[in-house]
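Sharing in case it's useful to others searching the archive later.

Someone asked me privately for the predicted structure of non-specific serine/threonine protein kinase, so I'm posting the question and my answer publicly. Question first, with the sequence:
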Amino acid sequence: MPNGTSRLEAQYAKGQILGRGASGVAFIVRPRDSPGRKLVAKEMCIVKSDEKRRKEAYAECDLLRKLSHPNIITCCDIVIDTDMLYIVMEYADGGDLSRVIQDAKVEHESDESRRLPEPTVMSAFVQICAALHYVHSRKILHRDLKPANIFVVGETSDLAACTIKLGDFGIAKMIDGTLGNAHSTVGTPSYLSPEICKNKPYGMKADIWSLGVVLYELTALKVPFHAGNLPAMALMICTSEPKPVPGEYSAQLQELITALLHKDPDRRPYVSAVLQQAYVQGFAAAEGAR
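And my answer, the predicted structure tokens:
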């Protein structure tokens, strides 16, 4: 390795920065032995980071090494270079689901009849469910399920033909035992479940709540609960019911969202039960036939 060349740069050519977040910078890289292949490197300074951030980074590395599913972003490599850690992952050329929702919202504002078609919404939903079922079956909570952490492979103008992949397992948690619970408050406020808002122990059903928020957002093009501050948001999540989804969507879809957003986690279905519903199975069969 030439002087001044990092371990990452010895293996990969660095490209444009894609974004910056609390955990570090994400940018395009191309393997030097396969320059036509485009990947993403997530960079984190493990010296400047606090102990919590370092533990999260190493935990994400350990977790990503174990995960292999067509609807989960693949971890291709992990590079530790002095005080920097890089997680190299597959590149999702369609961006993330938050961008899809924002584009749909802009179109809806110019033409109120335009929304994401129900088959398109459910195509994305069943793929997210497949990824969540995979991680839950391995006793893993994602804990930050939201559109910004759900990625799209393919041309987003035809979302129904795209592959949807769950990513960003930075605050995921392994649960000891099938009845295990987590206790720390993590996640993004709009997607937090009532039990997390109440600082109660939580399990897989907290991810199910977040799944319901994502499904609602795909239809209404906004989150079901919104407030100007965290305490007001938590109060809404715990005590208010969301407005019904727009009338162009079916009663079955509304019923599904209502079940996912039940205040009582014991009344929410597990993702395995969601995938067994006749309404959902119809779209899952279509996905399998693609």
